[in-house]
Design goal:
- The chain is α/β, with parallel strands linked by helices and 337 residues long.
- The chain has a domain of 208 residues: NAD(P)-binding Rossmann-like Domain (Rossmann fold), CATH 3.40.50.720.
- The protein is 39% helix and 18% strand.
- The chain contains eleven helices and 13 strands.
- The strands form four sheets. It has a seven-stranded parallel sheet, sandwiched between helices.
- Helix 1 links the parallel strand 1 and strand 2.
- Helix 3 runs parallel beside helix 5.
- Bound molecules: nicotinamide-adenine-dinucleotide (NAD) and uridine-5'-diphosphate-4-deoxy-4-fluoro-alpha-D-galactose (UFG).
- The site of nicotinamide-adenine-dinucleotide has 26 residues, from helix 1, helix 5 and strand 5.
Length: 337
């Protein structure tokens, strides 16, 4: 019996595959490598001393997915595969709806046809839009401000409807806050294509000398230092959250915030990154980025109680592990030029 991990060559997927293998589970990864490299799985094998089956396939192709279920006995699925860049989703909405929705519907269909009912899905704190209540509980109103967020809300609804249609389903929707950091070995980590959209990989590329300076998107927010505040969570804690979710699948469908409940501002991140790396991080204040909110902060109580999971790796560890990965792999998984 294996666990199928869609998108398992990607950033959060590869860290979760390590945690699964270390727990003694057998894993099949299906990924089309559209935003990742097979090298991540080679590193996973080296780190764990265990093999992982890899199928290169686009899961918007239902027949490719059926072939995976026919050649392996799959007991449960963790579904990471999807496109995730907010700005790109505004520019190319159809590509996002096509990829994220079709892949998820194919997966649910293939699972039911192969008598597999246990699913953990990667949702996002983006579904809370601009939150009215902080910290944000799962019961807060949802609303997306971009096509990427819409796909997450739609997939959540599809999962709820599917779970209501057959009592065998057990589906956990995990709303991640801001995943950062890397495996403590520094051998796997986040490897964005082109200039990073997200703060921490950008800061790390400045620290390592690949980019000149960080733009701080606004210092006039209603926060302690005026810069945006987020709930950053170590990717290893997040990976362990998936194992906890598999161990505590609900009857039907339920939703959990995965965050720490602690906030850090953009300037906190820059300062801590400077401390842990010993590198100067030049930065300048620029205009706000359209669509950004002042503060995002999880209320993680439900996951702590029902999943018996807690994210306890702090900001220094998140950034020192991110720095180790960046310093050891200045070009990510690519060979140096
Ligand atoms: P990632 O891009 O590193 O991983 C996603 C993987 O899915 C990639 O390896 C990509 O090649 C693969 N993929 C995409 N479309 C596919 C398809 N049609 N068929 C097969 N493989 C496909 O991203 P990540 O940061 O690891 O995110 C994983 C999941 O978590 C995504 O669903 C993302 O939306 C969600 N999420 C991420 C964040 C974040 O900040 N990283 C926050 C909230 C939610
Ligand atoms: N920021 C900068 N400069 C940068 C990049 C970001 O100042 O170069 C600021 C942003 O304005 C924000 C904070 O840093 O205040 C964090 O920004 P990120 O882009 O790292 O993260 P977001 O909170 O905007 O969004 C991320 C993912 C979304 C996901 C969300 C919640 O990109 O897909 O976390 O999980 F939905």
């Amino acid at each position: 019996m294996s666990i199928l991990v869609t998108g398992g060559a990607g950033y959060i997927g590869s860290h979760t595959v390590v945690a699964l293998l270390e727990r003694g589970r057998d894993v099949v990864v299906v990924d089309d490598l559209s935003n990742s490299s097979e090298e991540s799985l080679n590193r996973v094998r080296e780190l764990t001393g265990r093999d992982v089956t890899f199928v290169k396939a686009d899961i918007t192709d239902r027949s490719a997915l059926d072939a995976v279920f026919e050649s392996h006995t799959i007991e449960s699925v963790i579904h990471f595969a999807g496109l995730k860049a907010v700005g790109e989703s505004v520019a190319e909405p159809l590509r996002y709806y096509q990829n994220n929705l079709v892949s998820s519907m194919n997966l649910l269909g293939a699972m039911a046809d192969h008598d597999c009912w246990d699913l953990v899905f990667s949702s996002s704190a983006t579904v809370y839009g601009d939150p009215e209540i902080l910290p944000i509980p799962e019961t807060a109103p949802t609303g997306a401000t971009n096509p990427y967020g819409q796909t997450k809300l739609m997939i959540e609804d599809i999962c709820r409807d599917v779970a209501a249609s057959d009592p065998r389903w057990r589906i956990s929707l995990l709303r991640y806050f801001n995943p950062v950091g890397a495996h403590p070995s520094g051998n796997i980590g986040e490897d964005p294509n082109g200039p990073p959209n997200n703060l921490v990989p950008y800061v790390m590329q400045v620290a390592v000398g690949r980019r000149d300076k960080v733009s701080v998107f606004g210092d006039d927010y209603d926060t302690a230092d005026g810069t945006g505040v987020r709930d950053y969570i170590h990717v290893v804690d997040l990976a362990l959250g998936h194992l906890a979710a598999l161990d505590h699948l609900p009857k039907g469908c339920d939703v959990y915030n995965l965050g720490t409940g602690n906030g850090a501002s953009v300037l906190d991140i820059i300062e801590t990154a400077r401390d842990v790396s010993g590198q100067e991080i030049p930065h300048e204040i620029t205009d706000r980025r359209p669509g950004d909110i002042a503060t995002s902060l999880a209320d993680p109580t439900k996951a702590q109680t029902e999943l018996e999971w807690r994210a306890d790796r702090g900001l220094e560890l998140m950034l020192s592990d991110a720095w180790r990965w960046q310093e050891k792999n200045p070009n990510g998984f690519n060979e140096p030029d």
